[in-house]
Amino acid sequence: MSAPQRPAPGTPLRFRWRKWDGGPHWTHECVYLGSDRWGDWFGQPAGGRSHRPGRDFPAPGPSVRLLPPSGDYALTHNEAPPATYHIYIDLAWDLRWQDGEPTGIDMDLDVVWAIDERGIFIDDRDEWDEHRVQYGYPLDIVQHLEGLAADLERRVRAEEAPFDPATAAHWLGVLAGLTQP
Questions:
Q1: In this structure, are residues 109 and 102 in contact, taking their beta carbons and an 8 Å threshold?
Q2: Which CATH number fits domain 12-179: 2.40.380.10, 3.40.1190.20, 3.30.465.10, 2.10.109.10?
Q3: Distance between CA atoms of 93 and 104, rounded to whole angstroms?
Q4: For residues 24 and 59, is the Cβ–Cβ distance under 8 A?
Q5: Is the pTM here over 0.90, yes or no?
Q6: 178: closest CA among 56, 64, 18?
Q7: What is the rounded distance in angstroms from the CA atom of residue 4 to the CA atom of residue 122?
Q8: Which pLDDT tens digit goes with each residue over 54-72?
Q9: pLDDT(110) > 90
């Protein structure tokens, strides 16, 4: 199976999430930025729309999102305030290119680096516990993602690339260059 064709940098697209049962979740209006050794990068300029059933809002500031080849998480780096977090990692399943756009299953667990006193932590454990029973997540996926969440939390704390400020700054610069009038 060959790798999917990538769009040209600056191409608008939607980054679509769904839940395990196939129900709709977040959709982020983004632009394709390019790729590096970490995977494919997408940008959302300030004001870019993010929506899900019952919620719709413009992004308060620019952010960049990484889809790594593993397809088991998506990393979002935000620029400084007004964002309330530096990093937000959505643990995922089946995160991949489909019909020219990134899509995947949001698996509830998140690794967050908040700007406030909460710091770095694993979020939404209550939703994870509820949904793994409700949706019947397979045990091997549960074990993989719980281990991955702990590893990602460690890597964010250590500011290992691509979880470091320098990697984010590079891709935020690419986004700024593509979105300047």
A1: no
A2: 2.40.380.10
A3: 6
A4: no
A5: yes
A6: 64
A7: 32
A8: 999 899 899 999 999 999 9
A9: yes
Q: Are 53 and 24 in contact (CB under 8 A)?
A: yes
CA angle 162, 163, 167 (to 5 degrees): 50
- Encoded tokens for 106: 């949001």
For the beta carbon of residue 127, count every other beta carbon within 10 angstroms. 15
Task: Tell me how far apart the alpha carbons of residues 76 and 36 are, in angstroms, rounded to a whole number.
Answer: 15
Q: In this structure, which amino acid lies at residue 119?
A: G
Query: Is 80 exceeded by the pLDDT of residue 179?
Result: no
Both structure tokens of 141: 């996926």
d(CA 62, CA 136): 36
For 30, other C-beta atoms within 10 Å of its C-beta total 26
Please tell me the predicted confidence (pLDDT) of residue 3: 60
Peptide bond preceding 102 in cis form (omega within 30 of 0): no
